[in-house]
Amino acid sequence: MLPLTTTGLTQLVETARRERVRPHTFVLLALLLPLNAYWVGWMEAVKWTGHPTTYSLYFNTVLLLLLFFVLTELVRKFTGWVILNRSELLVLYFGLGVGSALVGHDQSQVLLSVIGHVHYFKSPTNRYEELLIPLLPSWLIVTDEPALRAMYIGNSSVWQWQNFVAWLKPLSWWWLFWGAMLAAFLGMSVLLIPRWVRHEKLGFPLARFPLYLTDRSLYASRLFWAGFVIPAFVNTLNNLNVVVSPAFPMMHTHRINLGQFITNFPWNAIGWTPLNFFPFAIGIGFLLPLDLLFSSWFFYLVWKAQRVVVAALGYPTGGFGNPLTRTNNPSALTWVWQRCFCGRHGTILRTPSKTLGATMPTVNSSFRPVGHGC
């Protein structure tokens, strides 16, 4: 199995060098994207369960990657054909991940409700037609009243021509915006990669995960199977209790509120303090740097201690009246901005000049926005 000391980005580049991505991979990805989108939408918007896009690691893409890896290995074993090499499996995984994000909770599901809300719910009471509608570009929202009634009331189909055209125009503009947004994020990644890889030495655990999952030697590890079987048994047992019958025992592994056991003032100001046991989070933790793991729980305890101190001083512990915690988010964002855009190496400021050939004093002559291998 690949060593933990090697960064995920370097592994991806080395894999791409050895194995070419063939055209049929993109055809398969194009066929899988709408099916995956339907699956995610059905889970999150219809059944309100699973919610894969609310986690950093989408379980739907993990299951699809595992499925195609098993199918590829079976075909290779019995016929000798390699229908999908490792690079192609990674393309499918990351492509489906981006597709899942675009149809997830914080993207399409919110957008569909927002672009039709103003026109459908306008009334003399809320004065939307007077206050909001003149400020909204008509080509970014749905203004067709029959199409909106079909959306909110039902008894119709999106494939009816009037409904389809009414939603197609604003969605096309939003899709164009999404494409520009993804391109901007890609450009930001290109600018930040030198600092992340060469200076900060980040491990990219989510990028390394599919590399481990497509490593044949992983499945010979007894420790891996133990780590798989135990949480699978717990989750299956809990699902049987909820879905099939309460006769199946429930193993309470999360949603234990420690705050309910602390009732004395000012210690009860810690508020809701959940104790959860998430096997997938523990697994990802093994891939994270130790300093990041330490800061995750240490500063959470610092935040809780701040609430206790604030309560002891007689201030409110929530909302805008909190004198300590209300400035934490802006301060954290300012620190991240300074580290990424200025920093001791001036990553963002130096990279465009380096790319355009301008002469600026540099820290490392090997510093480039993208390595030769890319």
Which characteristics define this entry?
disordered N terminus, two-stranded antiparallel sheet, 1% strand, 374 residues, 2 strands, 14 helices, globular, disordered C terminus, 60% helix
Approximately how much helix is present in the residues?
Answer: 55-70%
Question: What's the story with the biggest beta sheet?
Answer: 2 strands, antiparallel
Low-confidence stretches: 1-6, 358-374
Task: Look at the helices and sheets and give the structural class.
Answer: mainly alpha
Order of helices and strands: HHHHHHHHHHEEHHHH
**Overall 3D shape:** globular
Strand order of the largest sheet: 1-2
- C-alpha end-to-end distance: 24 Å
Explain the overall architecture.
The two termini are 24 Å apart. This protein folds into 3 domains: 1-220, no CATH class; 224-251; 256-342, no CATH class. The radius of gyration is 25 Å and the shape is globular. Mean pLDDT is 81; it is low at 1-6 and 358-374. The longest helix has 39 residues, at 161-199. The protein is mainly α. It contains 14 helices and 2 strands. Helix content is 60%, strand content 1%. Strands 1-2 form a two-stranded antiparallel ribbon.
What is the fold's blueprint, element by element?
Elements lengths: L7 H11 L4 H24 L12 H21 L6 H17 L5 H13 L7 H4 L13 H9 L7 H39 L5 H9 L8 H23 L11 E2 L16 E2 L3 H7 L4 H23 L15 H15 L4 H10 L18
Antiparallel strand pairs: 1-2
Short description:
This protein has 374 residues and is mainly alpha-helical. The protein is built from 14 helices and 2 strands.
